[in-house]
Amino acid sequence: MGSIIKKMVWISVVLSTFVLGGFGSAIQKQEFLKPEDAFRVSAAKQNNTIEIDITIAQSIHVYKESLEFMIVSPVEKKVEAVKPQAIDFEGEEVYEKAIHVSIPAEQIESQIKGNYTLAVKFEGCSDKGICYQPITETFDFKGEELSIFDKISSLTKEGNTAKIADVLGSESSWFVIVLFFVFGLLLALTPCVFPMIPILSSIIVSQSGDEKPSVAKAFFISLVYVVSMALTYTFVGVVAGLLGADIQAAMQNPWVLTLFAGLFVALALSLFGYYEIGLPASWQSKISKASDDAAKSKGLMGTAVMGLLSALIVGPCVAPPLGGAVLFISHTGDAWLGGWALFVMSMGMGMPLLLVGIGAGKFMPRPGGWMMRVSQVFGVMMLGLAIFMLSRILPDSVTVVLWALLFLGSALYMGVFESKEDEGALKLFRLLALVFFLYGSSLFVGALSGATSILDPFEKFTSGAKATFAAQEEDKSTHLGYSVERLMQEVQASEKPVVVDFGKASCSACDELELITFPNPVVQEQLKKFTFIKIDLTKNTEEDKALLKKFELFGTPNIIFFDKNNNFLPEKSLTGFIKPEDFAKHLEAIAQ
After folding, report:
1. What are the residue ranges spanned by the domains of the chain?
2. Which of 11-15, 169-173, 239-243, 378-382 has the lowest mean pLDDT?
3. What is the value of pTM for the model shown?
């Protein structure tokens, strides 16, 4: 009897093992629906109402609190909508089987002009024990047709070259021409154009000799300068678009920058009175014969050359519209429209310079000793521009030394240590010289200590560790030698969205991003949600070119983004400098 009981117990244990084992296997083999099968979302505009339907698979529910609607393009704006009645599920309000929401189109289109993109967001779980990642589905809708002014207004704020290229391809030729002229007018207000004002003014002064320039002559000189600059951008932009070349790599080559800096130094020395720059007498004679006005012809070749080379100064500022035009040319081969767009943009950018020419001829006082002082001031500005050009290729510490010497030399030239009685208002001039001397001395001491910024010459003496973004980046592996394969491997290895910053040493806008935008506390807070990858394209290798071609980029700086699923987001790409607050908002929108 005892043996029979033992056998029964043993059989029960064996059966239990098989049953439980089979049940466990059933649990392990349980298959869950993919997100696209669990939730099917549709949205359509019917009779001025946007009808949104979410079909939910069996044994799956969506949380009412998670359901929301947002406009994500052209601006980001939350849309309030009346949600349907939900049911109770373990103390939570949820939807099952289906959700239907109606949103009046007028509610959106009264706030947003033109086409827009609506995002439907929600979170759902299966009754069988799995919760899906947040779902976001986007739908494009046509809104009220934008006026030409609205279109231009929205595009002038655009930093994505691909979107600008799309406009070139979809709008009329006249709209494109007007758009780029407005681009030029806005670019005229950027700091990059300001250095050209003293260049042009010095040319007008030097070509006037001992006479007061007429309005017509000053305007003509300015026109030659601006047209030369415009033709340069047109030619380079068209060639770059047709060949797919990196504009800034070509126009900011170290040899070109050195040559340009040398021309500034030569012009500065001539303004100081050491010699006079002019065409050979035989050339001037031929030019004079070819013109009805010999005065207008004097020095025009030099003016044209300076205008041509001045395109280098504004290079970092024109990145988005210039890149858009180049991208359009490379895609369509329409060099004619792209070339005209670049030409009118450059002319718009030169409008303030034309006004300078008119003003110089109309408001310039009679010739006198004051003109020598003005020439000397312009000479100092020319030297400053030469240092600015060289700063893109020289080590930062060397650049600080050059700025120190410029300020110290200017102070001595202004007679900082000279003392005269009854100077009157000249004492204020002496005070400015003293400020220059003190600042120059600070820069010199800072350079000896290893300072790299003229804005913070005593950075090495400052107590506390200022962990700037650039310093943090130096602790990472080299940013050189990236290939498409290496980049994509790092992107795919990231569990967070990815920011990729393309920069190089000879790019002043890249430096602005490093010093102003990236270290900003608000930006740093947002960057914690991302994996940041910095790529240095200074060497312009074949792999560097392949990277630019892969993501349809022209020049630097360019910032591209990948979402947390490693998908490239071309519509989110940024070109050129972007302010910290704008960049932080951009990051926040991508991280959502």
Report:
1. 35-141, 161-389, 394-462, 469-591
2. 11-15
3. 0.46
Give the mean pLDDT of the chain.
Answer: 74
**Residues 6 or more apart in contact with residue 263 via CB below 8 angstroms:** 306, 309
Whether the CB-CB separation of 38 and 132 falls below 8 Å is answered with yes
Helix (H) or strand (E) holding 158: none
Q: What is the rounded distance in angstroms from the CA atom of residue 214 to the CA atom of residue 212?
A: 6
Positions of E strands within 22-178 = 39-46, 49-56, 60-63, 68-73, 77-79, 87-89, 92-96, 98-104, 116-122, 124-126, 130-131, 135-141
Chain-centre distance of CA 237, in angstroms? 18
Which of 206, 226, 462 has the alpha carbon at shortest distance from 354? 226
CATH of domain 35-141: 2.60.40.1250
Q: Say which CATH class 469-591 falls into.
A: alpha beta
pLDDT tens digits, one per residue of 405-424: 999 988 888 777 776 655 66
Q: Which residue has the tokens 């002009």?
A: 113
CB 139, CB 43: distance < 8 Å: yes
Q: Which residues of 503-521 are buried (b: 16+ CB within 10 A; e: fewer)?
A: bbbbbbbbbbbbeebbbbe
Cis peptide before 321 (omega within 30 of 0): no
Longest Cα–Cα distance of the chain, Å, equals 135
